[in-house]
Design goal:
- By secondary structure, the protein is of the alpha/beta class.
- Helix content is 49%, strand content 19%.
- It contains 11 helices and 12 strands.
- The protein has a 5-stranded parallel beta sheet, with helices on both faces.
- α8 crosses α9 and α9 packs antiparallel against α10.
- The structure holds 3'-deoxy-guanosine-5'-triphosphate and magnesium ion (MG) (3 copies).
- Its EC number is 2.7.7.65.
- It comes from Pseudohoeflea suaedae.
- GO terms for molecular function: diguanylate cyclase activity.
């Protein structure tokens, strides 16, 4: 958005941020030992439609951060009994789990040198006291806009442009973590690795052209997305090949699920600009049993996929 001069500048910024964020609310942590200031800040933030968590000390604020991973912005006072605002910022920045959080430091009126201290400690911004309502809201809006843009870029980097599915990079970033978490003895989750490949796709491209091939890829992706939902990690690994980390199903269940995936492609022909086309996929499915490198599961599934192709395609081999 563009910042314009004139009385509407603030409203423009705020409304554009609210518009950008409308699909996900942001939680802001307000840290101040003085009740009046805390409430004042909270009121301003509520006007900007944020969710608020309040803390009366830096120590309490750190606890809130560890309990509430949805906190994305913190506004912190300087002078508080116990840990002060700058020390709080330093503490937060030491913990890489809070990487994404933005912090606005609030200075005390007498100490103009605090600006520098805040920034050195890792704050993103600061406001001087006694603060100006408009300045405060603008700084908050700017910081939230940055949060949003970072989130948007992250999402773009994780997805494949043609199909909108997660890409290989995301699959390899998140997959190993899910596998490790699934091996946690406390709450072990059965998992399987499926690799899927469209059958005779080269022939389809050669016959109907690359654009029709793209249409088919998109429709196959949509069907897989619908079938996998949020539960299973689905990605386009490259070309016409997809990976699915199947979660929460035993080997039998995973196999049945892969049959479902296979059928959701073959059951109905895909409507393209060149008419309906019958498309099938082959799937290799390997159990994620021992604690092995993520690559090994993929290789195992890949070999089974090879067998599915060899055995005539349009089938699942586990
Ligand atoms: P098989 O059943 O053994 O998998 O045969 P296949 O023809 O599907 O396998 P092959 O690996 O020989 O061909 C894959 C084809 O996928 C070749 C390539 O042109 C095509 N392809 C890869 N990425 C894209 C894409 O983004 N769009 C389109 N239209 N085609 C793609
Ligand atoms: Mg104070
Ligand atoms: Mg293929
Ligand atoms: Mg292939």
């Amino acid at each position: 958005y563009v910042l314009k001069d004139g009385p509407s500048a603030l409203d423009n910024v705020i409304s554009s941020v609210v518009r950008l964020m409308s699909n996900r609310e942001v939680r802001v942590l307000v840290v101040d030992d003085m009740r009046s200031t805390r409430e004042l800040l909270a009121r301003h933030l509520k006007k900007q439609l944020f969710r608020i968590t309040k803390a009366t000390s830096a120590e309490m604020a750190l606890k809130e951060l560890s309990l509430r991973p949805d906190i994305e912005l913190a506004v912190v006072d300087y002078e508080m009994p116990g840990m002060n605002g700058v020390e709080f910022v330093r503490n937060v920045r030491r913990n890489s789990a809070y990487d994404g959080i933005r912090i606005i430091g609030v200075s005390s009126a007498e100490r103009s040198d605090l600006m520098m201290e805040y920034l050195k400690a890792g704050a993103n911004d600061y406001v001087r006291r006694p603060f100006d309502d408009e300045e405060f809201r603008l700084r908050v809006a700017q910081n939230v806009a940055t949060l949003f843009h970072v989130r948007q870029l992250r999402d773009k980097a994780a997805r494949d442009y043609l199909t909108g599915l997660y890409n290989r990079r995301h699959f390899f970033e998140v997959g190993p973590r899910l596998v490790a978490a699934g091996h946690d003895p406390e709450e072990s989750v059965p998992m399987s690795m499926a690799v899927m490949d469209i059958d005779n796709f080269k022939l389809l491209n050669d016959t109907y052209g690359h654009e029709i091939g793209d249409e088919v890829l998109k429709e196959v992706s949509n069907r897989l997305m619908d079938a996998c939902g949020e539960k299973h990690l689905l990605a386009r690994l490259g070309g016409e090949e997809f990976g699915v980390l199947v979660r929460g199903l035993d080997p039998m269940g995973a196999r049945a699920f892969c049959e479902e995936l296979r059928r959701c492609i073959s059951r109905e022909s895909i409507l393209t600009d060149d008419g309906p086309l019958n498309v099938t996929v082959s799937i290799g499915l390997a159990e994620v049993a021992e604690m092995e490198a993520f690559d090994n599961y993929l290789n195992a599934a890949d070999q089974l996929l090879y067998m599915a192709k060899d055995a005539g395609r349009n089938r699942v081999v586990a």
